[in-house]
Amino acid sequence: MKRVLIKNGILVDKHNDLHQVKKDILCEDGLITDIQDVINDENAQVIDAEGLYVSAGMIDIHMHNRLREAVMDVDKLGVYRGVTAMIECGSAAVDEADKFAAEAKAAKTKYYALLSGHSEHGFSKDMADMDVEKINPTHYLECFDRYPDIFLGIKVACSNTITNDQGYALVKKAKSIAKERCLPVTVHVGTFPPDPCGLVEFLEAGDVITHTYHGKEVSLFQKDGTPKRSFVRARNRGVLFDVGHGSASFCYPVAARAFHKGFTPDLISTDIRLSNINGPAYSLAIVMSKCMAMGMNLLDVVDCVTYRAAKTYHLDMLGEIKIGKSADFTFFDIKEVNLELEDCYYNLQKVSQCIVPEKVMVSGGGESELYQCTEGYSKA
């Protein structure tokens, strides 16, 4: 589709003051060209969004389709679940850069990656091959320079079960490399050691802590939900905090206490993979719905997966409903439901409103394509 007119949608874009307002959007050659209360254009293909919310295309900044598990059709994690762009978070490696780039270009979903900060080899080899001294910064920089529109930073999973005693050294090495290209580092915090209070001291504005609300032994929070001082200082200097739900990294009691103290996430992501698509992660929309059930509002959860996500990873054309930006959209409903959704620790949360993607539009190369959302949590 070259020229598209979206009619009657309820627009949701906090950054651009579109606070659930009904407007029309005209798109041409893959870009947003006009936003008005009413637009009529006989030459455009019309998408009637009556009764649906329309956001900028949702971005899942933390997913995995290249771990030890079988690889899926990546679009089942993307466009068919209401996500227009996603980031393979640390399970793409330097020596697989060409292969990943080919996969990214073939996907319907806009598919990016953070390079593994554990090893220059594939994640399945990391445990055996992980050695900070074997990481050659030149190889990473060459990869960033060869594919600047695909590789967006570095991810280090700092957990005793993954990095053993090398967590601090790997984060320091990743930071030194990423700073050469002004790219962010994402750090997974999990099983102690290393101590997350020490890890966060290496991070600067624009870097990301993921798995913020895990329920493991050493938390980012005091028992009453007050964030530890290291993380207050980190947020004040611009470090960002991501949900990163996953299979073992989201705990309702931890999140609820932190939310009550005002420490809500900057970013929301799934950490989705083959092993948790049928629970407890399900989809980005379900993780957003869980956050709403704990007190976040619609504008904020959408902002976490659109504008903030795009800004964090320098995806400058994405994340906004604004003239001149890419015509990527998620069309969704909010259904009244009576669900109990699980976290990663067998706790249940009552959910009365659920975000349910209906379709997405993805643009590129001067064209826009529409996809119906067919994957996700069936109870919703």
TrEMBL record:
<dbReference type="InterPro" id="IPR020043">
    <property type="entry name" value="Deacetylase_Atu3266-like"/>
</dbReference>
<protein>
    <submittedName>
        <fullName>Dihydroorotase</fullName>
    </submittedName>
</protein>
<dbReference type="InterPro" id="IPR011059">
    <property type="entry name" value="Metal-dep_hydrolase_composite"/>
</dbReference>
<dbReference type="InterPro" id="IPR006680">
    <property type="entry name" value="Amidohydro-rel"/>
</dbReference>
<dbReference type="InterPro" id="IPR032466">
    <property type="entry name" value="Metal_Hydrolase"/>
</dbReference>
<dbReference type="Pfam" id="PF01979">
    <property type="entry name" value="Amidohydro_1"/>
</dbReference>
<dbReference type="GO" id="GO:0019213">
    <property type="term" value="F:deacetylase activity"/>
</dbReference>
<dbReference type="GO" id="GO:0016810">
    <property type="term" value="F:hydrolase activity, acting on carbon-nitrogen (but not peptide) bonds"/>
</dbReference>
<feature type="domain" description="Amidohydrolase-related">
    <location>
        <begin position="256"/>
        <end position="364"/>
    </location>
</feature>
